[in-house]
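Q: What does the assembly look like in three dimensions?
Context provided by user:
Components: two
Sequences:
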Amino acid sequence: MANLTIRNLQKGFDGHQIIKGIDLDVKDREFVVFVGPSGCGKSTLLRLIAGLEDVTSGSIELDGREITQVTPAKRDLAMVFQTYALYPHMTVGKNLSFALDLAGTPKAEVEKKVAEAARILELGPLLERKPKQLSGGQRQRVAIGRAIVRNPKIFLFDEPLSNLDAALRVQTRLELSRLHKELEATMIYVTHDQVEAMTLADKVVVLNGGRVEQVGSPLELYHHPANLFVAGFLGTPKMGFLKGKVSRVDAAGCEVTLDAGTTISLPFTNAQQSVGDAVTLGIRPEHLELAKDGDCQLQVVADVSERLGSDTFCHVRTNSGEALTMRIRGDLASQYGETLNLYLDSAHCHLFDAQGQVIRKALQAAA
Amino acid sequence: MMTLKQSRRLQSVLLGSLSWVIAALIFFPIFWMVLTSFKTEIDAFATPPQFIFTPTLENYLHIQERSDYFHFAWNSILISFSATILCLLIAVPAAYSMAFFETKRTKGTLLWMLSTKMLPPVGVLMPIYLLAKTFGLLDSRIALIVIYTLINLPIVVWMIYTYFKDIPGEILEASRLDGATTRQEIFKVLIPICKGGLASTALLSLILCWNEAFWSLNLTSSNAAPLTALIASYSSPEGLFWAKLSAVSTLACAPILIFGWISQKQLVRGLSFGAVK
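A: Here is the predicted structure of the complete assembly.
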């Protein structure tokens, strides 16, 4: 069992508040990813959980046991660092067995556990080598192995793939996912890479400025972002935003007049909404379509296109200067400077109020 | 026209020759000292200086007759090694806390420590002499061990601090998560990683202690006198006897030179540790 409960966790350095009151639950066997831009406090949060930083206020509990003031070694957690942090003077085998040796584990058991970790991570032939004789990917596997032998309640990963090249990153990502299932382990993973967050996580925690912006499954966050930040942070290319004002409100939804000139009816509203409110309409690149005859809602001018083979990303600009990205079939492309007529499918639009909070669909809000 | 290959070759030959010339210039006084130690006093004074002469061991025999070389050598060994060990025992924890638990005052403390090296030793001769006298430590090894430890401490702390600074903090954090206590962290992780740097620091401290003359001359006379005091004893009372002075100097330098020669590989590796890591 490994259930982690964090309540009102705060951390300040020299008067600067880095973590501003975080509540979070991590359930047994869950793969939780902390994601956010640089400086959002995700690594600090992980270090607070590991016990490498002192908590300013708040509490951390593991399976009902308060561990806020417990030393790192006694928390029953293992961490994989971004720089691997292998002991350079020890062989791979010694690196793996170090924690067990310190704990005074019987030699036979140490050997058994090291052999098991080496088998899982295919480190067998490397056990006698020193870390400097290993490639980046091999070092990463040793760092993971060092965590595995300790059989911790929770594995902590601090941007473990960011020092690997692109191909190896994809491969290691898959291995990590497989490892999570094989070991039935609870894992907390920090990354700034949203692809890692989307592909690995059972639960994504989006952090910004020391606060949790939203917690949920990857697809929940992708399809139902709670605010402008989450909407803009998840998804590549990112969601396009169009500013506008509410021009009519009724029970079924509202009508928004965009700065770009178009008026569009949307099935969204909430109790506070009134005519004249500033709003932002968001739409993902895959939901922008070229208009068929007569259903044009937005006229844009094509900027450059990026052709990836499977898809083409057309960067376009509205007459009010807002940039959007449209995802179309790979065999199509727009011409630079060409005028395009777009259709916005209101079912796929997101609407945010002036504070950046989402305005839920009328039906959803009622439910 | 010279080809690129030829010009590179010429450059390397020129650079090589220049290095040899500089090395010869630096080494010449030592060479001359050793050479003079095998001359008679008359040959040693001869002008122009003689390169070809009949070598003699009489100077060395004279020294062994007049003074007990091994007594002084033993003092040098005992004082240098004790001071170095004591210095490391204090400097390693100090550098550890400064490197890994830095506060606003760390840089200031380091600079202050180093600034004490700028004080002319003679400036504190009187108080230290009186202190040694009061505690009955004149002509005692303990006084020299304590003083050598203190005068080398700033440089030793600085050196170890820079080696520790090169170690990523994450390695120590990893060991903490692995269950290491502070002592295990220092002895099982930090020191083994920095052993090259620590060895070269220890070597430097040894050399500095071995060569120190000011305090040994002022605080010792016979019991605790190291080799530097032995050399000095040959310079004054009977006028200058160059050949004997050279012989005693050679005897005083030889142990540390040989020790340095054996450990030079370690020394170079330690000094360039940061660059090749």
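Follow-up: The two ends of chain A are 35 Å apart (CA to CA).
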